[in-house]
From TrEMBL:
Taxonomy of the source species: Eukaryota, Metazoa, Ecdysozoa, Arthropoda, Hexapoda
Record-level GO cellular component terms: lysosome
Top-rank taxon, per record: Eukaryota
InterPro entries xrefs: Glyco_hydro/deAcase_b/a-brl (IPR011330), Glyco_hydro_38_cen_sf (IPR037094), Glyco_hydro_38_N (IPR000602), Glyco_hydro_38_N_sf (IPR027291), Glyco_hydro_57/38_cen_sf (IPR028995), Glycosyl_Hydrlase_38 (IPR050843)
The protein, known as: Glycoside hydrolase family 38 N-terminal domain-containing protein
GO terms of molecular function: alpha-mannosidase activity
Keywords: Glycosidase, Hydrolase
The keyword Hydrolase is assigned to this record: yes
Protein species of origin: Anopheles atroparvus (European mosquito)
Length: 429
């Protein structure tokens, strides 16, 4: 039982500690029936005392000044409501570590004539907004940008960030240096860049900085080898954005958007829960509240002629009900963010607060929709408690076609120079 407790997926630390305590109880029972010396009984008493102490402080962290313990991981997850449709609202930004601009240009926000994107402003802004409301949550993926930004902060700001991580309000997902391609790269490159990113998170934030979910939302197709690496690294699940348009249509029609992916024919424990996101990784139409978007905000002024609360919430309820018909549980994950969003995080969070408030207010009129801030790992936690028999898959998600005339295959079938650059680049890493 003591060893099993260390391996329990989706369990909270308190649940794992309960299993450990059960194991120690069995040890006491065995000792009482077989007879033991006084010294061995003292040893067992010390073990039990330590177990009880760890139950009182399951994270092993020091208490805060208010006497409360930091809660990260599954302990920090919001409580879902049974017999309701639980909408996990995930505030996120997708920040390419080099695309149309260089890494520094993306970080500092230069060359806006190419793309208006500055990651330093995203992290500055999100930090301030998270501090305004303890229910707000945010996920961050690309460790390269977090490493660069964190190093520039004062010790006071760094402490604030660590506290947010310890409380589960800022959560790292994926955790690699960047979100790697899955077709043209060598597996050693993938391992190395995950090692680099995860080492930074572990050294800086400890156990609370360890990602529990993979987040491959923008690669153009997915390889079974990538899934195998996630399974071997101990991730509890994987979220994907881009599926072949015909494959996605079929999965939506047959409620197969989530599955158990057998990622290896030879390795043990190679199954990985995999979820395909409904809107790739974007918000649903009408609910993009970023400075880069054109959707109307939620206008709730009681005397405003532009008040649109009823229309917005009607559209939202229709949207989530349509989504729910393609998934097997009463939980759905809603991605609220896009490329380099949250440079003005106030716009997003102010409107998401209203969206959650007015959606849940409809419950008084009989609505069965429950919306709240969440994270991919909290979604995994909720879904896996429903004991569903999932569809299975054992092959790649290649080739990827975004429409009938767009097959994203040339970059790995006819670009040998690109592969050579990737191999050479790995030597530098």
């Amino acid at each position: 039982l003591l060893s099993v407790a260390r391996e329990l997926p989706y369990a909270t630390q308190r649940e794992k500690q309960a299993v450990k305590l059960a194991g120690l109880s069995l040890l006491f029972f065995s000792a009482s029936t077989s007879g033991m010396g006084q010294i061995n009984w003292l040893h067992l008493m010390l073990l039990l005392w330590c177990a009880i102490g760890s139950l009182a402080n399951p994270t092993g962290s020091k208490s805060s000044s208010e006497g409360t313990l930091p809660q990260c991981g599954y302990e920090s997850c919001p409580t879902v409501k049974e017999n309701m449709l639980n909408v996990h609202i995930v505030a996120h930004t997708h920040d390419d570590v080099g695309w149309l601009k260089t890494v520094d240009q993306y970080y500092y926000g230069s060359r806006s004539n190419i793309q208006k994107a500055g990651v330093q402003y995203i992290l500055d802004s999100v930090l301030q907004e998270l501090l305004k409301d303890r229910t707000r949550r945010f996920i961050f993926v690309e460790s390269a940008f977090m490493h660069k930004w964190y190093a520039e902060q004062t010790s006071a700001v760094q402490e604030t960030v660590r506290n947010l991580v310890n409380e589960g309000r800022l959560e790292f997902i994926g955790g690699a240096w960047s979100m790697n391609d899955e077709a043209a790269v060598h597996y050693q490159s993938v391992i190395d860049q995950f090692t680099w990113g995860l080492r930074f998170l572990n050294d800086t934030f400890g156990e609370c900085g360890r990602p529990k979910a993979g987040w491959q939302i923008d690669p153009f197709g997915h390889s079974r080898e990538q899934g195998s690496l996630f399974a071997q690294m101990g991730y509890d699940g994987l979220f994907q954005g881009r599926l072949d348009f015909q494959d996605k249509q079929e999965r939506i029609a047959k409620q197969k958007m989530e599955m158990m992916w057998t990622t290896s024919a030879s390795l043990e424990n190679s199954e990985l829960f995999t979820s395909a996101l409904y809107y790739i990784y974007a918000p649903p139409p009408g609910f993009c509240f970023d400075v880069l978007c054109n959707d109307d905000p939620i206008i709730d002024g009681p005397y405003s002629r532009d008040n649109n609360v009823r229309e917005k919430i009607d559209l939202f309820l229709e949207t989530v009900h349509n989504m729910s018909e393609t998934y097997l549980t009463n939980n759905i994950i809603l991605t609220m963010g896009e490329d380099f969003h949250y440079q003005d995080a106030n716009m997003w969070f102010k409107n998401l607060d209203k969206l959650i408030k007015y959606t849940n207010a409809r419950q008084a009129d009989g609505s069965m929709v429950n919306a709240f801030y969440s994270t991919p790992s909290c979604y995994l936690h909720a879904v896996h408690r429903e004991d569903i028999e999932w569809p299975t898959k054992s092959d790649d998600f290649f080739p990827y076609a975004s429409d009938p005339n767009a097959f994203w295959t040339g970059y790995y079938t006819s670009r040998p120079t690109q592969k050579r650059y990737e191999r050479e680049g790995n030597h530098f890493l």
